[in-house]
């Protein structure tokens, strides 16, 4: 099987109650770069990570949504976010399913789960 030079990727589309506030959190606190922004949609990128946000009318959407980000860069991200004082940053620990993970809730309730297998560290 030939591997395409531009493989398909999954990109989460998360809910935002305020696009400007999401922009400020992801760019200002988490170190993403803004890719696109208008009143109802936001795209942010950092290295190979890309997140999209749509303007949601109700807290039920972001408070029941999550995204899993996996890879070897996770250890460095945890240290960076800890040094930046990112609020609602969990401990970085091995979970019962044998993944070393940490969590962040964004200002609207979206759960970002960062993880890697302990063997990747």
From TrEMBL:
N-terminal signal peptide: none
Protein name: Bleomycin resistance protein
Pfam families, per database record: Glyoxalase (PF00903)
Keyword tRNA processing: no
GO BP term, pick one: response to antibiotic
Source organism superkingdom: Bacteria
Organism, scientific name: Undibacter mobilis
Family: Belongs to the bleomycin resistance protein family.
KW Transmembrane (keyword) present: no
Xref: InterPro entries: Bleomycin-R (IPR000335), Glyas_Bleomycin-R_OHBP_Dase (IPR029068), Glyas_Fos-R_dOase_dom (IPR004360), VOC_core (IPR037523)
Keywords: Antibiotic resistance
Record-annotated VOC domain positions: 8-117
């Amino acid at each position: 099987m030939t591997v395409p030079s531009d493989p398909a990727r999954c990109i989460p589309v998360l809910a935002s109650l305020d696009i400007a506030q999401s922009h400020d959190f992801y760019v200002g606190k988490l170190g993403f770069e803004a890719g696109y922004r208008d009143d109802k949609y936001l795209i942010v990128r950092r290295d190979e990570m890309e997140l999209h946000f749509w303007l949601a009318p109700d807290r039920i959407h972001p408070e029941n949504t999550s995204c899993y980000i996996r890879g070897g860069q996770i250890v460095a991200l945890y240290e960076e976010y800890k040094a930046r004082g990112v609020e609602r940053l969990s401990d970085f620990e091995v979970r019962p399913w044998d993944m070393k993970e940490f969590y962040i809730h964004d200002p609207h309730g979206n759960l970002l789960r960062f993880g890697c297998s302990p063997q990747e560290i």
